[in-house]
Specification:
289 residues; alpha/beta; Rossmann fold; 2 domains; six-stranded mixed beta sheet; 47% helix; globular; disordered C terminus
Length: 289
């Protein structure tokens, strides 16, 4: 497929995500987070292209964070932003030293690094009058995050295309949610973007890299694997899961902390939990099978 074909496919997926999740609407002012990687470059390209054709108005601000990593070369981003016709900013914050200090030996930097970056993005959005922050996470990122949560956290959870931050001040949007990483990589090469490698975590062997490889290997035998996993995120049957809060047939979950408090009170009164001292003393006890 040629450049035009890849561009059209990427734009179809961006438009599809926007339609289904209502990512961008009239009057939005969006801070576009540019890492210097292929995904964020294509993200800004796609949003600029959308802005030129949609029948409503929204504004874009390009933002890049220099985290003070050793060997960091901001030249590619400076050259890229010099060509833009939208507001842009490069902010320098030494999060690198803080992340190294906070991360235990043998652990990955990703979690702490992500928290710092997100806080800085929200402050930048406020400074630029933006109500939304656009991130370059794509289809493969969403799928990998689902698998990571399943394997290592025991949760069915991924990256939502649209999310309100904890403070309720800004929305995080992911317009590339339906875009395949291979298409973004190909488009980045065709557009000749200057890629800026992440020297903080790029060399670390992470669980995400393991899951990425696993999915790649499994996809060799099942080429629809990733598409099926993405579809599963939007095709949920709560009645067939084990979460009591999702199924009215299940009993109301018991508050474990309340049980502990009740048991502590009984012990203080000289009553052993599970005895028949009073009906109330045993009604909250778990049933052992």
């Amino acid at each position: 497929m040629g450049q035009r074909g890849i561009e059209q496919r990427v734009m179809r997926q961006i438009n599809k995500a926007n339609r289904e999740f209502g990512l961008i609407t009239e009057g939005d002012r969006i801070l576009v987070a540019l890492s210097g990687g292929k995904d964020s470059y294509v993200l800004l390209w796609g949003l600029q292209r959308m802005r030129a054709v949609v029948p409503f108005n929204f504004e874009l601000v390009a933002f890049h964070l220099d985290q003070g990593q050793p060997g960091y070369d901001g030249g590619p981003m400076v050259r890229f932003m010099d060509q833009l016709t939208i507001p842009s900013e490069i902010e320098k914050q030494d999060t690198y030293s803080v992340v190294l200090e906070l991360t235990e030996e043998g652990k990955t930097y990703c979690s702490a690094c992500s928290r710092f970056r997100r806080a800085i993005l929200y402050k930048a959005a406020e400074r630029h009058g933006c109500n939304k922050v656009a991130l370059g996470h794509h289809r493969d990122d969403l799928i990998e995050t689902l698998m990571l949560n399943l394997f290592y956290s025991g949760q069915i959870k991924s990256m939502p295309p649209r999310l309100l931050n904890d403070a309720g001040t800004h929305e995080v949007i992911r317009p590339l949610a339906y875009c395949r990483e291979d298409d973004l990589r190909a488009l980045s090469t065709l557009h000749e973007y200057e890629i800026m490698p992440c020297t903080l975590c790029g060399s670390q062997a992470t669980r995400r890299q393991y899951v990425k490889k696993l999915l790649g290997d499994l996809s060799k035998d099942q080429r629809h694997l990733k598409g099926n996993l993405l579809s599963a995120l939007g095709n949920i049957h709560p009645s067939h899961l084990l979460d009591p809060s999702l199924n009215p047939l299940y009993p109301t979950p018991v508050d474990d902390s309340k049980i502990e408090d009740d048991q502590s009170d009984h012990m203080a009164d000289g009553v052993v939990p599970g005895t028949s001292a009073s009906p109330a003393s045993s009604q909250h006890l778990p049933i052992l099978l």
